[in-house]
Amino acid sequence: MAQAKAESKYQQPDDRGHFGVYGGLFVAETLMEPLTELRRAYEKYMLDKEFLAELDWELQNYVGRPSPLYFAERWSKELGGAKIYLKREDLNHTGAHKVNNTVGQALLAKRMGKTRIIAETGAGQHGVATATVCARLGLECVVYMGQVDIERQAANVFRMKLLGATVVPVTAGSATLKDALNEAMRDWVTNIDNTFYIIGTVAGPHPYPAMVRDFQTIIGREAREQIQQHEGRLPDALVACVGGGSNAIGLFHPFIDDKDVAIYGVEAAGDGIETGNHAAPLCAGQPGVLHGNRTYLVEDENGQIIETHSISAGLDYPGVGPEHAWLKDCGRAQYVAIDDKEALQAFHDLTKIEGIIPALESSHALGYASKLAPTMDKDKIIIVNLSGRGDKDIHTVANIEGITL
Amino acid sequence: MIDYVSRIQARFELRANEGRKLLIPYFTAGDPQPEVAVPMMHAMVEAGADLIELGVPFSDPMAEGPVIQKAMERALEFNVSLHDVIAMVAEFRQKDKETPVILMGYLNPVEIMGYAEFAKQASQAGVDGLLTVDIPPEEAEEYVKEMKAEGIDRIFLIAPTTTEDRIKAISDASGGFLYYVSLKGVTGAGHLDVKAVQDRVSTIRTLTDLPVGVGFGIKDAESAASIGNVADAVVVGSAIVKRIEENLDSVDNAIKSVCELLSEMRKALDA
Known about the structure:
The structure holds two protein chains of two kinds.
Chain A: H1 2-7, E1 18-19, E2 22-26, H2 32-45, H3 49-63, E3 69-71, H4 73-79, E4 83-88, H5 98-111, E5 116-121, H6 125-137, E6 140-146, H7 147-152, H8 154-162, E7 166-170, H9 177-190, E8 195-198, H10 208-216, H11 218-231, E9 237-241, H12 246-252, E10 262-272, E11 277-279, H13 281-284, E12 286-290, E13 292-297, H14 322-329, E14 334-339, H15 340-354, H16 360-372, E15 381-386, H17 394-400
Parallel strand pairs in A: 4-15, 5-6, 5-8, 6-7, 9-10, 9-15, 10-14
Antiparallel strand pairs in A: 1-2, 2-13, 3-4, 10-11, 12-13
Helix pairs in contact in A: 3-5, 5-6, 5-10, 6-8, 10-12, 11-12, 15-16
Chain B: H1 7-18, E1 22-28, H2 37-46, E2 52-55, H3 66-76, H4 82-95, E3 101-105, H5 107-113, H6 115-125, E4 129-132, H7 141-149, E5 153-154, E6 157-158, H8 164-173, E7 178-181, H9 194-207, E8 212-215, H10 221-228, E9 233-236, H11 238-245, H12 251-270
């Protein structure tokens, strides 16, 4: 991992966690020392052969990697343009890309001698992935989850409990992911001696954005090899959904030096950007400081964070990883938005045409791919990150469509 | 700049000469409603407050316990903004030119207003200092420069986990006083260890010339007095906000209850 970085022309972040003007370390003083301790451990173990071998073993034998790169032939034909390949992160253990990171951070926690794990979760995927790995490693696990999300993701809440985790409902603020993150930070500041905080996305104070990215780049490294096996060349475009942006950066990062590969991050437009009910900081927000880093935020003119909206709990977050903010400003990646209806359409299309039920988060990436593919020639190639499976979302979809299960 | 004595410095020097400790109450501007702020500040001074720490409401107050979180939610129901809080200080200054006022909150509202613009407006209104919980000195170069230019003292926190190297760096970036957080946790937490605080404050004093205030976990006259024995100033937040919370039906009772607590603390500190 560290080797791949050293070979790249792209060297972000700087040693204090800045991606251009974004990122950094904006936390209360009590967390400065624990974050320094974490940064040192991360820097040490990412170069430690034994640690990396252990991580690889877990990814192969527990997570089930490598995940396939699947040619969605019928869907591509139906759309009538570029060939669409799906990176099947939905086939990972626990059903999403989140586990790549939780395995990595939990192994790190163990090396650091921490016995208690905390996490925040929105859709519940990161919470489930964290609870799973904690069960596997025998670590205590506490997951903070907004009350609103608990209600819309009941199955994942039960999964976490089955796995032995304590799920703590958060009722403060908008009672969603951002408030769960606030509460996890409050727990961490109180219990820093024995507690490791597993952040689920490429946001938060340094070193989290870089560390979570490094654990997720397995997606892009595999996809890069796999597409060359399938097609003998690199793709023309990459598409991934962006909430905090960990699945996206995981796919994008190993292609950043490949200037001919177009990169599209897809945010949640919710009811539509123009309605204000969205979760699209890169498309419709402005820079600010929240949750330990400087990045684009959905906020008002006084700097208060605004409640976001998306059909997908996992994208319902007012911030975004600072590396995405940087990739936007320097023009290397383009950020677009797909609304609830478009995502829902893609959800149904992929399910019916390919027999794959995608997560509503991933359906945003699919929604954009279905617009992009027809504008490209048939010999062009798009890789879409199918970041999670949609089983967790069937109740949400049924509800919207007035169906009682 | 060299000859300039800030209101904060003047107050610390005055109390030091008298052999007394500063009492610093905190409350959230706009809680339980915006009109209460200025009368509350005057009443606090009347009850023995030396310096007022006025909370700027923020939607995501990560360092606060439940008591101050709810206070911020109450204030945000009235959309109390950083502009509004600065205006409250300007109104307070019409009658009180002596008592220092610092704003305490989170970086984003200041970031959105712009550091230079904030410093200018705050200075004109009579704000003396700024404490934003989530900016460590490592990220604060521009921030410190702009605040210094307008004579706004920068108050930074020092935690039980802060290393000696960083205490020095924090002291270099600071003005007015250093604020030692007495425990690992959020505001309003309950486990105050006076002996541990004493040891840390002694260490901090070897690394700075600035006075040292202590806050987090001080809830009554007794804990105020014991912290007053080891620090130059005692900061009280959640215990005050709790009294506001208990009197949401009557502004007068809220102010009265807060002032009773402050008077008891003042007495205990001066005893």
